[in-house]
């Protein structure tokens, strides 16, 4: 089972039995709120991304991608054509380590300086090629056409549906019992998604054996 954007909007209206114009106008918001809850509660490879770029010699800043949320790793290619991974620190550490930005060298540390830039220490002495592995915000299902799909709408449809219904019933000021039931179903769906994203996506039976669950 999977949802297109149109199918999910229809499902929300069918479950809530609500076709009122203001409610329908807010359907994209309900869906984006559900996507946000999934994004912040489950580690999925879907939320990982790699990009390449270039440092600028004598510039202590490196621009972050527009969809950047948090770093996993940052590396550069040194003069021996080897990848060197920078250590992630806080801004104060990097600025204390290299108090004079005019002092350049091979980078060793980086930190998130602001929403648009990393700060590098020491200031790069060359235009090194870099690779950033990072946690990013995938494009929302609501950004596409009615016939469009996303990984979540195809592979996490229960989490997306019940998350959207929770937001819809909150908007409607619906019955607490029904809202609680949708919340319970959402939590169950999230648990299954976490089992996939934080176990099956990151291990293999050959190395670690099967995932064992307690008997009921």
Short description:
The protein has helices spanning 5-16, 21-25, 27-41, 91-97, 151-155, 157-172, 176-200, 205-208; strands at 48-54, 61-63, 68-77, 83-85, 87-88, 104-105, 109-112, 117-121, 123-124, 129-136. It is of the alpha+beta class and 216 residues long. The protein folds into two domains: 5-44 and 139-203, no CATH class; 56-127, no CATH class.
Report on the architecture of this protein:
The protein has 216 residues and is α+β, with helices and mostly antiparallel strands. The protein folds into two domains: 5-44 and 139-203, no CATH class; 56-127, no CATH class. The chain has eight helices and ten strands. Helix 3 packs across helix 6 (157-172) and helix 6 runs antiparallel to helix 7 (176-200). The mean pLDDT is 91.
């Amino acid at each position: 089972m999977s949802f297109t954007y149109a199918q999910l909007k229809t499902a929300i209206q069918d479950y809530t039995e609500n076709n009122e114009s203001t409610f329908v106008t807010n359907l994209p918001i309900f869906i984006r709120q559900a996507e946000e809850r999934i994004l912040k509660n489950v580690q999925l490879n879907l939320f990982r991304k790699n990009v390449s770029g270039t440092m600028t010699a004598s510039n202590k800043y490196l621009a972050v991608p527009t969809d950047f949320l948090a770093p996993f790793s940052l590396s550069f290619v040194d003069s021996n054509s080897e990848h060197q991974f920078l250590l992630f620190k806080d801004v104060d550490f990097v600025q204390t380590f290299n108090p004079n930005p005019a002092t350049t060298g091979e980078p060793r540390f980086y930190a998130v300086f602001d929403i648009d830039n990393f700060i590098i220490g020491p200031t790069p002495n060359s235009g090194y090629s870099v690779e950033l592995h990072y946690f990013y915000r995938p494009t929302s299902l609501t950004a596409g056409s009615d016939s469009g799909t996303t990984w979540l709408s195809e592979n996490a449809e229960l989490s997306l549906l019940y998350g959207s219904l929770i937001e819809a019933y909150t908007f409607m000021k619906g019955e607490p019992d029904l809202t609680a039931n949708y919340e319970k179903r959402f939590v169950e769906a999230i648990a299954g998604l976490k089992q996939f994203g934080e176990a099956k996506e990151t291990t293999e039976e050959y190395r670690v054996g099967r995932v064992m669950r307690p008997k009921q």
